[in-house]
Structures are given as structure tokens and as C-alpha cells.
Amino acid sequence: MRSLTPASIRPPFARYAHGIEAPAGARLVVTSGQLGITPDDQIPDDPQDQAAICFGNITAILAEAGMGPADVIRINAFVTDRAHMAGYMAARDAWLADVAQPPASTLVIVSGFTRPEFKVEVEVTAAAV
């Protein structure tokens, strides 16, 4: 993977890349949006805890394809309030702590999800040769 961060534009605001180039022939994995709900249907109130569950689910999905966080080329995340951004970003940064090259990343504030207790949703695209 190659990080695309042109010197002619402002550097990223946080630990992400403006763009990532995947090599020709790479296998792609695209996840559905993951919500902060445990296998036994528990939903923590804290947005950071919800985000950590989302990333744990994504780790499991990627593992099914023989991939991990280092193979992620794009993160799309959604939170229901600006106040939830810091918790989401802390969980994201912890998940990427051992990743040398961070992926492209977008965070959007939305009006809500299917159930009001959900505060965070995360989906990723991963690529590996």
C-alpha cells in the first residue's frame, strides 16, 4: 500500500492518510457497518466502548479473510453527536496503534441509527496481496 499525502494540501487533522493506493491484484474486503453491540446483545452507553466493539467486530471479519488492521485502506465512521467524536477517535487510534501506515478515514455526524442507543457505526475497506 502507498500513502497519498500531497505536499500541496493541508496534512491530515489526525492519524489517517488523505489517500491510499492498493497495488494491482490486491484482494479486497469490504465490511458492513458495525455497531457497538456485543454477541449477547449488550450495548454500552459510552461511545468509546461502542467504537471498541465495532473495531473488535471488524478485526474478526478481517481475520476470516486472513487480514488485520494493517490491511485496512479506508475507514468510514458515523457518530450521532459531535460529542462522540473524541471517544470514537480514541478507539480508532488504539485499534491502529500498531499500524505503521494509517488508512484513509472519514468521520460523519448523522442524525441516528436503527436504534437510539447506538451512537457509533464503523465500516472498513481492506486490501492485501
Automatic annotation (TrEMBL):
First and last residue of the signal peptide: none
Keywords attached to this entry: Hydrolase
Residue runs in coiled coils: none
Recorded GO MF terms: hydrolase activity
Gene3D superfamilies found in the cross-reference section: RutC-like
E.C. no: 3.5.-.-
Metal-binding keyword on record: no
Protease found in the keyword field: no
Enzyme class: hydrolase
InterPro entries on file: RutC-like_sf (IPR035959), YjgF/YER057c/UK114 (IPR006175)
PANTHER family: BLR7761 PROTEIN, YJGH FAMILY PROTEIN
Name of the protein described by the UniProt record: RidA family protein
